[in-house]
Amino acid sequence: MKTFFRLCFFSFLSVCVPSLSSAQKSGTHIPDYPIRQGVSAPFAGFVDSVLIVAGGCNFPDKPAAEGGKKVYYSQIYSLTPGNTSKQWQEQTPLPIPVAYGASIETKDGLVCIGGMNNDSTSTAVFRIEISHSNPETVLISNLPSLSVGIDNAAAARIGNILYITGGNQPQQKKALYMLSMEQPESWKKLPDYPGKQRVQPTLVGTDNFLYLAGGFAFDSTTKTCTLSTDILRYDPSTQKWSVETSIPPYPDNTPRCLVGSSGVAYGNYLIFTGGVYAPLFKEAMEGKQDDQYLKHEPTWYQFHDDLIIYHTTDKSWKIIPHVAGMAKAGGVLLRKGNTLYMICGEIKPGIRTAEIPVISLSDLLK
Questions:
Q1: Angle between helices 278-285 and 2-12 (to 10 degrees)
Q2: Could you say which architecture CATH assigns to the domain 2-291+300-360?
Q3: Quick one: CA dihedral 272, 277, 278, 283, positive or negative?
Q4: How far apart (Å, rounded) are the C-alpha atoms in residues 252 and 284?
């Protein structure tokens, strides 16, 4: 499965409220990402007020539909949003080119975990920090490596504890791993999440719980793709998983799978967006699409452009449809204060974008 997924995944790839046009117009402009054509599946996050983006991959010479070769990047760029005199600054690169890893914002820096490139799956864990002596530059330090290579997983933080789960693990395992930043000696294996494997899920941490949303499993023997359309909750105090809720379907009851999606916490809210359209993705993974699959216009693939918002206390959903710039797979959704940032991603299988939409959260959750 892993080999097939590496070649194909990103190459294949309730209440309605008014649109966000006024909120979008009030957002802070971000210059396009400096890597030509943008990247998918990078590490990304804020360190204090500085936006850091690292790694990722794209097809720089020819599109995937024309047999282009996927290139992985080690570049790190930084930018301070709102500072109009600044542009993206290239920093010291990562030790290896890598994409499809997971990243977590911490008070000490952006932690980058696992991932893969053309050569291997990574066990490496790095922290990208802002230099105290020169705030214009970043430093890279090593943290304890994972015991196994993991790619296309998801990571989140509760307090000073880092977690990673889902994705491609050896033997299609479903382990949850944690690392304490107070004593970062080694990653500890915690209970597996229940049910099917979840590749490309979203993991969001709140003050007390982890929420694991979506993902897919692929059985290479039967060539069957199974999509997870629910959200699991992990309680660190009991070390137990439970089913939290189902992801609301589209208005025509087509399921949402949250594969290649991204999410953030905002108080008692979980905000998800982006990712693939379940029926088309399932057909592609199961080999039921024809040789024209990669050659359609972006709108044909129906990548998610809704914000779907879950209230963890009320157990209720709000759906804000058709938000400009959110229809991406492999993008990274970030929140800084009351503002959302969608970092790069692909707008159709194999075609990335350098645009970084910015959305104000003012009036969004009323």
A1: 140
A2: 6 Propeller (2.120)
A3: negative
A4: 21
Element (H or E) spanning 197, and its range? Answer: none
Contact call for residues 158 and 206 (beta carbons, < 8 A): yes
pLDDT of residue 288 exceeding 70: yes
Sequence-ordered list of residues with C-beta below 8 angstroms from that of 172, at least 6 positions apart, any chain: 1, 197, 217
Return the sign of the alpha-carbon dihedral for residues 313, 315, 319, 324: positive
Q: Domain limits of the chain?
A: 2-291+300-360
Quick: pLDDT tens for 319-336.
999 999 999 999 999 999
Return the number of other C-beta atoms located less than 10 Å from residue 35's C-beta.
22
Q: In sequence order, what DSSP letters do the residues of 272-289 get, joined into one string?
A: EE----HHHHHHHHTT-S
Confidence grade of residue 209 (pLDDT, cut at 50, 70, 90): very high
Q: What are the CA-CA distances from residue 199 to residues 3, 70, 119, 291, 346 (Å)?
A: 13, 20, 20, 25, 17
Structure-token pair, residue 192: 């597996």
Give the model's pLDDT for residue 23: 38
Counting residues of the chain whose pLDDT is more than 70, the rounded percentage is 91
Check residue 26 and give its pLDDT: 41
Give the mean pLDDT of 332-343: 96
Burial status of residue 4 (CB atoms within 10 A of its CB: 0-12, 13-18, 19 or more): middle
Which of 112, 120, 196 is CA-nearest to residue 162?
112
